[in-house]
Amino acid sequence: MLKYIFKRFLWSILTLWAVITVTFMIMHFIPGDPFAREGTMPEAVYKNLNEHYHLDQPLFIQYTRYLTSLIQFDFGPSLKSNTMTVNDFIKQGFPVSLHLGTQAILLAVVLGMILGVVAAYNRNKWQDYLSMILAIVGISVPSFIMATFLINFFAVKWGIFPVATWKSWAHTVLPTIALSMMPMAFIARLMRSSMLEVLSQDYMITAKAKGLKGKFILIHYAIKNAILPVVTVLGILTANLITGSFIIESIFGIPGIGELFVKGIFNRDYPVILGSTVFYSMILIFLIFIIDIAYTWLDPRIKVIGENN
Amino acid sequence: MKKLLEIKDLKVNFHTYLGEVQAVRGVSFHVNQGEIVALVGESGCGKSVTAKSIMKLLPTAFSHYKSGEILYHSMDLLKVQEKEMETIRGNEISMIFQDPMTSLNPTSKIGEQIIEGLMKHKKVSKSEAYRKAKELLELVGIPQPEKRMNQYPHEFSGGMRQRVVIAMALVCEPQLIIADEPTTALDVTIQAQILKLIKDLQFKLNTSVILITHDLGVVAEICDRVVVMYAGEVVESGKVEEIFANPSHPYTKGLMKSVPRLDMSRNESLYSIVGSPPNLLHPPNGCAFYSRCEYAMKVCQKHSPNLMEINTTQQTACWLYHPMANPVEKESMGGM
Ligand SMILES: Nc1ncnc2c1ncn2[C@@H]1O[C@H](COP(=O)(O)OP(=O)(O)OP(=O)(O)O)[C@@H](O)[C@H]1O
Ligand SMILES: [Mg+2]
């Protein structure tokens, strides 16, 4: 088991390195240049700026320089802000996005699983249709429409929750709901099909034939087996949610890191783009690593494959 | 001998999009305390449905019990509430399924799967339950039971899994075990071991067993009585010796003839009953075996025969044994 974890860890590092390298190279080969468009800039200033940020040095030197700083968790300076580094941006925005994302993913998992289980247990009855209509709405309605809809009713019309900004917990409710709709719908559909598959398995009849209680069978037999496919997608869903959504954060005026990336692209602020891509990859790869380990614990059949390799 | 289970005129239908499938059409037989009863018959004749009916394991959404009684200790299981049925399943009546590869929960340890029924029914402590599970695994011939209990189904071979399933079925010391083709999915040498195991355990614990099988050799070897089913009905029942020496129903005769024998010559081809069983969506009015029967009479086409006693232990559902049947035709039966 330890050997397996170690191996998966090495793979994670390797994957991360590949992502960093590819992003770095793409960044430098796309046409354009962070300071080129400021047409009024005197030649000397331009040269100085390039020198200051080491943009005049050979690519390989820049690359190794970037890697070494990354190892010390230094994402470098921002080219467009003279007071903030990329680290400052992340430190400022990430806790907010993490908070919002964690709430959203928890809500999505709990609600999505309940909907999926209820739908599967009541296949082709009204509960099933209702759950799946909710799921289709969740998947097909874009989050900005969902967000405006929520704001219109819960904030403007009924005044239950504040309209926007990020202050008290009440401020987090509407963006959490808006953000969780899509993953919730996705999980509900996945859980439903996975449950239906499990419910048709022979061991479900064995469980009943043993005289076990319905609730016990639901938890120990049905959900325990049906949850596996849901766990596999949890890494990506969580990574997406906790690294911030540009749309939701803009609509609700939330100071998260979702807007960081988009601003970076508009400004051609290389270190910011690179930094947020690398940061996102780090989180994604880390979560996938955790999920992989959790999976071997949830599904005993996986362990053997891991150990035999 | 005391009757443990008695099924009377059981009828089970399935609702399908084509219509009502009459899977079981008036089955009656009984199981005495401490005996092994074989349930035999062609594929699709309703053996599994009958077995699942006893435990009330049929999907409630699209099946229903049209009529009949399933008397267990003279209590009608068809009238028992689901809550009470839970206390009978696995506790007083347990079931061994056909495919051990799929009938165990892949994500639970073997030990847990054995004790969960015991803990539910007998209110014993966990450590006591584990001790009992260990004993049982030893009894069914699994070496190193302590270690094995902490393993998952995928770490067991097919034969070993079926032993686990048997241990699971035995754990509450049930009075009746229903084994639905318990060895069909296993290879031949393991089949013999498992059947011997069932027989030994039945003898040791004096439980009753309903054994569903296609293997008449097995029936002859380990069963006390035989119930022959055809197209959702019982066509004959009796003691093993009677059924093998004196099969009375033409279907049973055909079944016996289709068993390969050692004294068969090399180029003699194996007998098989021509034709196929009727569609249970629209079963015929008369005898279901009519279209395949060598001895069919006029009456057989119109009227379905009920079970008739040939002697105190053997019953058959065939007009040939009706007291009014033409003695000439009866004679021709004897000559086959
Ligand atoms: N869930 C179901 N829905 C519809 N029809 C069913 C269902 N289960 C069984 N049947 C029908 O009931 C009849 C009896 O099936 P059953 O499984 O009892 O046969 P069997 O005697 O056990 O056969 P085998 O030897 O192949 O196991 C079959 O004709 C089958 O088509
Ligand atoms: Mg069957």
Describe the structure.
The complex is a heterodimer of chains A (309) and B (336). Chain A has 309 residues and is mainly α. Chain A is 77% helix and 0% strand. Chain A contains 13 helices and no strands. With 336 residues, chain B is an alpha/beta fold. Chain B has 2 domains: 251 residues, 3-Layer(aba) Sandwich (Rossmann fold), CATH 3.40.50.300; 70 residues, no CATH class. In chain B, the strands form 2 sheets. Chain B has an 8-stranded mixed sheet with strand order 6-7-8-3-9-10-12-11, with helices on both faces. In chain B, strands 2-1-4-5 form a 4-stranded antiparallel sheet, with helices on one face. The model of chain B has no long low-confidence stretch (mean pLDDT 89). The interface between A and B is medium-sized, with 22 and 29 residues. The site of magnesium ion has 3 residues of chain B, from helix 1.
**Sheet having the most strands of chain A:** none
The class by helix and strand makeup of chain B works out as alpha/beta
End-to-end separation of chain B: 35 Å
Oligomer state of the chains in this structure: heterodimer
Radius of gyration of chain A (CA) equals 24 Å
CATH architecture of chain A: Orthogonal Bundle
- What share of the residues of chain A does DSSP label as strand, in percent? under 5%
Look at the structure and name the CATH superfamily of chain A.
Answer: MetI-like
Q: What is the level-2 CATH architecture name of the largest domain in chain B?
A: 3-Layer(aba) Sandwich
Which H/E pattern describes the elements of chain A?
HHHHHHHHHHHHH
Dominant shape of chain B? globular
Write down the overall mean pLDDT of chain A: 86
